[in-house]
Design goal:
Blueprint lengths: L7 H16 L3 E7 L4 E6 L8 E8 L4 E5 L2 E3 L4 E6 L7 E9 L3 E10 L5 E8 L5 E7 L5 E3 L4 E3 L1 E2 L5 E6 L7 E10 L2 E2 L4 E7 L5 E8 L5 E7 L5 E3 L4 E3 L1 E2 L5 E6 L7 E10 L2 E2 L4 E7 L5 E8 L5 E7 L5 E3 L4 E3 L1 E2 L5 E6 L7 E10 L2 E2 L4 E7 L5 E8 L5 E7 L5 E3 L4 E3 L1 E2 L5 E6 L7 E10 L2 E2 L4 E7 L5 E8 L4 E7 L5 E8 L7 E3 L4 E2 L7 E10 L2 E2 L3 E6 L8 E4 L4 E4 L9 E9 L10 E3 L3 E3 L7 E10 L2 E2 L3 E6 L7 E5 L6 E6 L7 E3 L4 E3 L1 E2 L5 E6 L7 E10 L2 E2 L4 E7 L6 E7 L4 E6 L6 E8 L7 E3 L2 E4 L7 E10 L2 E2 L3 E6 L5 E8 L5 E7 ...
Antiparallel strand pairs: 1-2, 2-6, 3-4, 3-7, 5-6, 7-8, 9-10, 10-14, 11-12, 11-15, 13-14, 15-16, 15-17, 18-19, 19-23, 20-21, 20-24, 22-23, 24-25, 24-26, 27-28, 28-32, 29-30, 29-33, 31-32, 33-34, 33-35, 36-37, 37-41, 38-39, 38-42, 40-41, 42-43, 42-44, 45-46, 46-49, 47-48, 47-50, 50-51, 50-52, ...
């Protein structure tokens, strides 16, 4: 034993520990038991020297029973021994002793022997899920087990019989249990098979009878477990299962026809009967078939039907309509009135007998069921001719004839209307009578007659005569053979249409087309009746013909064009002097052209022309025409200008007032009373040399022959003078013609001096002139013998040349030039594009001016010339290295830095060129500036992070500093590199940067963000081993993944922001980092998980079909559920969002919204919990055709627990508007008949209405009977105005698991079986598309 130097409490603990260690340095264990033996094993520490060993066994009172030296395996120092002859199910104690130089021992906890094997077992069914098991065992037991399930048993007194209740079985199941006995937790060695362990079937929960025949009924029952029979206690029948449903069917026999009874039934399976009975009421059989039937017509809509049936019935039906019948005494004959038939109809009724709502098996056809036709309700006569009238009648039923009792005629129906027409013959012209008529159908006459009054015939046709015909009108006279009251007529072009209207007996039709054939139609009207129309062909006259004329001095020729008139036509004409009052009364037939000869010159004649078309004469056209003047005999010319000449014209005889060349005409003035005339012929071109053919003109008529005037000259236009050269002693000009010229004359002189013209060429230089002197140059053009007017131009000689230029910057766009010239004076200098004014410096040859338009900060070289009197010297001089000041810096921006150590990067704007930026520091520094896309950038180094600065900047170019500066205040960026981000949405603003959550700034030179901590709680050195951080350590990190450093270096428990499910409301503050909704924090890894991993409800493996168990690592909550802080799947939602209510809300359909104080919030019906893009758990409306599994998971099941779209109602249930699955609901739907309101449908008892209702019912049945077994309670109604509506109900007895039934379109109203629609509420029914809304 070592010397102890510790506290007393520590010393006691050490001694105790050493004692326990010495006493228990060996291990004694039980390695197996049977009912009569126990196996022991002892392991001695290796290296021990053993002199003796022994195993000892005791009973429960520690009385020693046996000792044995045991067996040894020296290699492992292991000893074993088996004690036999023991008692089953009994407690024993054991000890092992040995000597290795000191006596030592080891004990083991109490050991029990196993129970004896089960030797017999009997099952007794207790319920649908439990069976009592009785077993026989020769030793005591307290449980029985099949290896996975165990149950307690009780002993039957002191016998070897034990009983226990085995639970968890399925109804109607049969199995074999392989069982062991257990006592004190020890299982018997061998099992015993208890066979035929069977449970009771479930009770019948529903039953429906269906009559099959007169003696048998099919019984359909619903049982939640399997059965093979049903029984009423005395009779039992076999049943068959409907697929995998809970529905079973069997046939119950031995009943009487038309009988009704109630069967009290039990289900049976494997001979075991269910616990409780179920009463199946209204078990009824079919009546006997109808064997005879006779119809008797009663009215237009009813027939009495007599039938013979061998069993009792209370109704007869055709499958859609049924009527009550009464029995004729005690016979087998029954009678009933069949209503709702159509008048004039003949049909065959296929009828069944019914009793207690049950229809007979087979129909009977009652043929020739006929009704009377309806009475005629309206009649209208229409005259067809002078002897026939069309009779139109209205009858509400079909007819094929009408009659007055002695005469009858066939009628035809107008389409599908109630109107019929026939032709009544043998009447007199213009006669009127009344016909008393009956309708007939199939030889049956209507009951009552109808008087068709005013049956009248047409009057005869009129006659007509034509009175006048003009180009646009026709007048007609009309007479009538017999008396008439009025006329109707119209006129139309041949082949066209017209509508007659009232006219007089002498109508005139105007606004007609000339020389056109028209058809006139006229009708005589007598007492409202019209005769057959009379038509006649007519022609309008042609329009007055037109003509053109040509003249000589002795004749006039007229030409007239052929008109558009068709048919036979001709022309007549004549001519006479106008002075004779145009007494040309006799027109002769002529053709075009026609010449009137032997006329007098310069005389006016009247010409007349007329056209005759189809015998109709047009109005005469009359015109006055002149004969031509005499020809010109001579022409002379004078007084020429650039565009005109004066002509003197001689005419031998007669008079003229103008001359013409056929295109242009000019007036002339007579020279006294001579035969000469003066005419100014203008419109000529300068420098012209033309010939003109002249005609004399009088009264706008030109002479027949022309006179040629040759060599008509005009003056040339003055030339233009351009200066092509100016020196200080010469002027060079270039002459350009204004018009064609044959030479030039010119001179140059000082402006106040004389001009002496001389012949010159197009280019002329005048030399030996004075400098800077104004000269006048004069030039005129020569053409033929004519000279143009003089052209003049004042021209200066040039100044002397520049001898020197210097420059000085003025501002950003200009520089001052100092120019020295050789001699003389100047006004300005120019480079050919830019010109600047110059100011003379005293009386010297030096001048100064400001050159503008330069670029800021630029160096420019250009050449200029001196200018005086706007004349530029031909010689230039170079202005070299002309500099401007750089522009001021504007719009300075401080940019984010990426370099280490940190630098300040700036951008700015400036016009022109900036080469450097100079700072205002104590020692100014220049920094190079670069330009990209009009933005300059420069970088300043040597700054400290997170430090405020205020600097003044000036721009520098070509060693010239800008005139103004810009001051800018900024704070350098706090950090740089990874884990350093902007705190705002301005990533280019350095002032917004900070270390992100979990990182902090340590080195203010580099600006690095590091994930280190300072000395303190949960901060350790990252070396090996990881010890608590010391003050001097520089590698401190937070302990374990669940701690992260804050910006002060303290370790905070938090998820790691690098995990995408870890969200920080402030990404720069680690204390705001939390797991997203639907995820929980896992401290061991510092991560966020949505792995429910609890083996609890609503936790599933991927695919959503397999529930998770404890230990699974890839599980997530099912649809509508989300993980909480305990990693349990709960249905919860964000109380701030809509449709999130308290669980206490009744049936989840109330609007009691969750508040911040509620801790159990769920989505109301029709919505499910879902995480949105903002990671909030919100209530989202369930998709179409999808049920809500959170309401009832037994009726709403999902094939994938993670996908809401896979959730559907179970078999036998239907999805409601609340997204809940209900069992076998009745559903109402409606449809509309196509078309608009029809008054014939107003009578719901009418056959037409019933036929339409039956037609639409059949369509609906075709659509729905694939998934439902019955269509009930068809009810058709009509509302005004609008369409016919049909309502129906169907009962869903069987429903595929993935279907939802609805109708579309539907009408926006509902009604029950007894209510009527009120017209005031539904005057204008609103139709809408249901948008998949469920009924």
């Amino acid at each position: 034993m070592a010397t102890l130097t510790m506290s007393s409490s520590m010393w006691i603990f050490t001694i105790l520990f050493m004692m326990i260690q010495e006493r228990n340095c060996q291990t004694l264990t039980s390695t197996g038991q049977t009912a009569t033996s126990i196996d022991l094993r002892m392991e001695i520490p290796a290296g021990s020297t053993i002199t003796s060993v022994s195993f000892i066994i005791y009973d429960s009172s520690n009385t020693q029973l046996n000792t044995d030296a045991g067996n040894t395996v020296t290699a492992n120092e292991v000893y074993t021994h088996t004690f036999t002859g023991l008692t089953a199910s009994t407690q024993y104690n054991a000890k092992f002793t040995y000597d290795d130089g000191a006596a030592k021992e080891a004990t083991v906890d109490p050991i029990y022997t196993a129970p004896m094997d089960i030797t017999a077992g009997t099952p007794t069914a207790l319920s649908t899920t439990t069976v009592e098991i009785s077993v026989t065992v020769a030793s005591e037991i307290d449980k029985i087990t099949d290896g996975s399930t165990e149950i307690d048993v009780t002993r039957d007194g002191s016998t070897n019989n034990y009983k226990g209740t085995w639970t968890g079985l399925s109804a109607s199941s049969t199995t074999t249990l392989t069982l062991y006995g257990k006592m004190n937790g020890i299982q018997s060695a061998n099992p015993y098979d208890v066979a035929d362990v069977a449970t009771k079937p479930e009770d019948i929960t529903a039953g429906t009878p269906t009559a099959l025949s007169t003696t048998t009924v099919e019984i359909s029952v619903t049982v939640a477990s399997e059965i093979d029979k049903i029984t009423d206690g005395s009779t039992e029948i076999d049943v068959t299962r409907d697929g995998s449903t809970n529905n079973y069917k069997g046939t119950w026999t031995g009943l009487s026809a038309s009988s009704t009874t109630t069967l009290t039934l039990y289900g049976k399976m494997n001979g075991i009967q269910s616990a409780n009975p179920y009463d199946v009421a209204d078990v009824a059989t079919k009546p006997e078939d109808i064997t005879a039937g006779t119809p008797t017509a009663l009215s237009t809509t009813t027939v009495e039907i007599s039938v013979t049936v061998a069993s009792e019935i209370d109704k007869i039906t055709d499958g859609s309509t049924e009527i009550d019948v009464t029995r004729d005494g005690s016979t087998n004959n029954y009678k009933g009135t069949w209503t709702g038939l159509s008048a004039s109809s003949t049909t065959t009724l296929t009828l069944y007998g019914k009793m207690n709502g049950i229809q007979s098996a087979n129909p009977y056809d009652v043929a020739d069921v006929a009704t009377k036709p309806e009475d005629i309700t309206a009649g209208t006569p229409t005259a067809l001719s002078t002897t026939t009238v069309e009779i139109s009648v209205t009858v509400a039923s079909e007819i094929d004839k009408i009659t007055d009792g002695s005469t009858e005629i066939d009628v035809t129906r107008d389409g599908s209307t109630n109107n019929y027409k026939g032709t009544w013959t043998g009447l007199s012209a213009s006669s009127t009578t009344t016909l008393t008529l009956y309708g007939k159908m199939n030889g049956i006459q209507s009951a009552n007659s109808y008087d068709v009054a005013n049956v009248a015939t047409k009057p005869s046709q009129p006659t007509l005569t034509i009175t006048t015909q003009t180009p646009d009108s026709i007048s007609i006279g009309i007479t009538q053979k017999s008396s008439t009251t009025s006329y109707k007529g119209c006129i139309k072009k041949k082949g066209a249409e017209c509508t007659t209207s009232a006219i007089t007996s002498s109508p005139t039709f105007s606004r007609l087309d000339a020389c056109t054939e028209y058809i006139f139609e006229v009708i005589a009207v007598y007492e409202g009746r019209e005769s057959d129309p009379l038509t006649h062909s007519l022609h309008t006259a042609s329009v007055n013909p037109d003509f053109t004329s040509s003249q000589t001095k002795n004749s006039i020729t007229i030409t007239f064009a052929d008109t558009t008139c068709t048919g036979t036509k001709s022309f007549k004409a004549c001519a006479d002097k106008s002075s004779n009052n145009a007494d040309c009364s006799s027109l002769a037939t002529v053709t075009s052209p026609h010449i009137f000869q032997n006329l007098d010159p310069n005389e006016q004649y009247t010409i007349k022309l007329q056209e005759i078309n189809e015998g109709v004469e047009s109005t005469i056209t009359s015109k006055n025409e002149y004969t031509a003047p005499d020809d010109i005999s001579g022409v002379s010319q004078s007084q020429q200008t650039t565009t005109s000449v004066l002509l003197t014209v001689t005419v031998p005889t007669g008079l003229i007032d103008a001359v013409t060349d056929g295109t242009k005409t000019v007036s002339c003035q007579r020279v006294d009373s001579t035969t000469q005339y003066t005419c100014v012929w203008d419109g000529l071109s300068p420098s012209s040399d033309v010939s003109i053919l002249l005609f004399g003109v009088k009264n706008s008529i030109k002479s027949v022959n022309a006179f040629e005037v040759k060599n008509v000259y005009t003056k040339p236009t003055p030339p233009s003078i351009s200066v092509t050269g100016q020196t200080k002693d010469s002027i060079t000009i270039t002459v350009s013609p204004g018009s064609t010229s044959e030479g030039y004359k010119g001179c140059a002189h000082i402006s106040s001096g004389p001009c002496t013209f001389e012949d010159i060429t197009v280019q002329k230089t005048y030399s030996s002139l004075n400098s800077v002197t104004q000269y006048t140059v004069e030039v005129k053009a020569v053409y033929k013998t004519l000279e143009s007017d003089v052209a003049k131009k004042d021209i200066y000689t040039a100044p002397d040349d520049i001898s020197a230029i210097t420059s000085t910057p003025v501002d950003t766009t200009s520089a001052e030039l100092t120019v020295t010239i050789t001699s003389g004076t100047i006004d300005s200098v120019s480079d050919g594009t830019t010109t600047i004014e110059m100011t003379r410096q005293g009386e010297t040859l030096s001048y100064k001016g400001i050159w503008t338009g330069l670029q800021p900060g630029s160096v420019t070289t250009f050449s200029v010339k001196p200018v005086k009197n706007n004349v530029m010297s031909p010689n230039s001089f170079e202005a070299a290295n002309v500099k401007t000041k750089p522009s001021a810096i504007t719009n300075i921006s401080y940019l984010k830095s990426e370099s280490k150590p940190i630098t300040a990067v700036f951008t700015f704007e400036a016009v022109g060129t900036v080469q450097k930026v100079r700072t205002s520091e104590s020692t100014p520094r220049d920094f190079a500036a670069s330009k990209t896309n009009d933005i300059y950038k420069f970088t300043i180094d040597g700054l400290t992070v997170g430090t405020p600065y205020t600097l003044t900047f000036t721009s520098v170019s070509n060693d010239i500093v800008s005139a103004s500066s810009a001051t800018f205040a900024f704070t350098t960026q706090v950090c740089v590199g990874s884990n350093c981000e902007s705190k705002t949405n301005k990533p280019d603003d350095p002032a917004t940067y900070a270390c992100t959550a979990g990182f902090r700034l340590v080195d203010t030179n580099t600006g690095d963000c590091v994930a280190t901590c300072v000395v303190g709680t949960n901060c350790q050195d990252s070396g090996t081993p990881a010890n608590n951080c010391k003050e001097s350590s520089s590698s401190c990190v937070c302990k374990s993944p669940n701690y992260q450093p804050d910006k002060n270096g303290n370790c905070q428990e938090s998820c790691n922001p690098s995990n995408q499910q870890c969200d920080c409301s402030d990404k720069f503050d680690i204390t705001t980092c939390k797991c997203l909704a639907g995820y929980v924090f896992v401290p061991a890894s510092g991560t966020c998980t949505n792995n429910c991993n609890q083996g609890g409800s609503n936790c599933f493996k991927p695919g959503g079909t397999t529930a998770c168990v404890e230990g699974d690592t890839d599980c997530i909550c099912g649809v509508g559920y989300h993980i909480n802080s305990n990693r349990e799947c709960k249905e919860h939602c964000n109380y701030l969002r809509s449709n999130c209510v308290t669980r206490a809300s009744v049936a989840k359909s109330t609007t009691v919204a969750c508040t911040s104080s509620d801790n159990d919030c769920v989505c109301k019906r029709g919505f499910y919990a879902k995480m949105n893009s903002a990671n909030e758990i919100v209530c989202t409306e369930l998709p179409l055709d999808v049920c809500d599994p959170s309401v009832d998971a037994t009726t709403c099941s999902c094939t994938n627990k993670h996908d809401i779209s896979t959730c559907g109602c179970a078999d036998g249930t239907l999805l409601t508007s609340s997204k809940v699955c209900e069992v076998s609901p009745s559903v109402r739907a409606e449809c509309t008949f196509p078309g608009t309101y029809d008054p014939e449908y107003a009578d719901k008892s009418s056959q037409k209405f019933k036929d339409k209702c039956a037609e639409n019912t059949a369509k609906v049945k075709t659509q729905v009977e694939k998934s439902m077994t019955s269509l009930q309670k068809v009810n058709c109604i009509q509302i005004k105005p609008g369409s016919i509506i049909m309502l129906w109900e169907f009962v869903f007895e069987k429903r595929p698991s993935s279907s939802v039934y609805h109708t579309n379109p539907a009408m926006d109203f509902s009604m029950d079986e007894t209510s009527d629609l009120k017209p005031s509420k539904y005057n204008t029914p609103q139709y809408k598309k249901t948008d998949e809304r469920y009924l």
